């Protein structure tokens, strides 16, 4: 925001130029300075509220931001005409604006984005606070959260559960998160949200399995319902892929959602944000309004939520706490080589085939989950065309080149994924009834000459569209190029709409 940078320079100039506040001032001057301070505070409040709207893609946000900045400029100009003006509230405003991360809140990411953390005692700025306060929550030095973990039996019970019967799930979540960290964490960091909070939500929602789907229809690593996801920009894209499965997009949406809850519910009740995430913002909003913004743990507020939400909130906080303090609990999170890299397929393959030929690669479980999480647009059994560039890690790229492009293991992997269980049933001969010399009647097999091997059936040349199928999924199934398949059937991009029962010509498919 060039206008903001110009304003900050103007504030700095005026603060350096104004006389000392200790100079004699008339009552009229003091009243004028107080009025300017109030105008500055009001303009700053309007400016911070506009950042929330900008973060939510509200077109009115930019206009309100510019108007608030113009009001601040007017205050600065008038302050410069008064002796002793600016040594108090204007200095505080200047410090807060420096720490506001305006570019990040507006969606501008780059070297110029301000990553400064506010000092303890500063007011929160931007969409969510990033100071060591109750809303920031999970910094190790956060005294309130330390007290919460030590004194709140619900959170303690959550820690106990994660460390006992759910320990494997917690460790698996951490391993999955390491591979996706570079995709998901930036969205939280840009908005001052702690990475540990992201991990806590991920662990409780999906254990880091991108393709998780609940019975209620919540989908993806952070489990967005269709309506909420759509409001936050998630859903079917031009390829027919549901972006709720995408780690980066879902983390962006979650950060925006929590920013909304901060703006709506205030910065001193992070538990209520989590309750809204799980139990719906409508219920959280009503509880916040009806009970005067009281804590989630107050009985009147707590009992407004269903048992699932009352369990969800402390479990997320407990997982986040363990993410920050594993050694205190004898918890060892295995480190994985998650350095991101891409590799290009030299021949068509499926994720199943790649999982087999890559092997374990010094990991515990191999790379099936990693391949699926980092390439969520592909089904595990679908053929991915030659030339496709897949996401993985540096080590996975090396294993692909060594084991999956040629050689005995590559061919074995292909043979295994192409095996058809239905061909395992072999008919040896015909059954007939015979009478033995002693008069006994029984069934016996009559040997027959082996039948000539039938030629392999020709590849299908058409496909009848079933309910819910997309052109992308069909193209992957038959190893087609999506654009060529669409052109051959007169299907227009970018939506590639199909109708149930439609017959597609599989031209250009393997």
Strand content: 5-15%
- How many domains make up the 3D coordinates? 4
Please compute the radius of gyration using only Cα atoms. 31 Å
Q: Strands across the major sheet, in which order?
A: 1-2
Percentage of residues in helical conformation: 40-55%
**Major beta sheet, specifics?**
2 strands, antiparallel
| Helix/strand order, N-terminal first | HHHHHHHHHHHHHHHEHHEHHEEEHHE
- Average residue-wise pLDDT: 77
Low-confidence stretches: 2-24, 86-96, 98-145
Distance between the termini: 52 Å
CATH architecture of the largest domain: Orthogonal Bundle
Total helices: the number is 21
Class of secondary structure makeup: mainly alpha
Which oligomerization state do the chains in this entry correspond to? Answer: single chain
Shape: elongated
For the record, the CATH class of the largest domain is Mainly Alpha
CATH topology category name of the largest domain: Lysozyme
The total of beta strands comes to 6
Characterization of this structure:
This protein is mainly alpha-helical and 510 residues long. The protein folds into 4 domains: 2-105, no CATH class; 143-329, Lysozyme (Orthogonal Bundle); 344-417, no CATH class; 462-505, LysM domain (Membrane-bound Lytic Murein Transglycosylase D, Chain A), CATH 3.10.350. Helices cover 50% and strands 6% of the residues. It is built from 21 helices and 6 strands. The protein has helices at residues 2-17, 27-55, 60-79, 89-98, 102-105, 143-151, 153-163, 167-190, 195-206, 226-231, 247-265, 270-279, 281-290, 299-302, 307-324, 351-358, 368-374, 394-404, 408-418, 471-477, 482-488; strands at residues 340-344, 389-393, 429-435, 441-447, 462-464, 503-505. The strands form 3 sheets. It has a two-stranded antiparallel ribbon. The chain has a two-stranded antiparallel ribbon with strand order 3-4. Strands 5-6 form a two-stranded antiparallel ribbon. A hairpin with a 5-residue loop joins strand 3 (429-435) and strand 4 (441-447). The chain is elongated. Residues 2-24, 86-96 and 98-145 have low confidence and may be disordered.
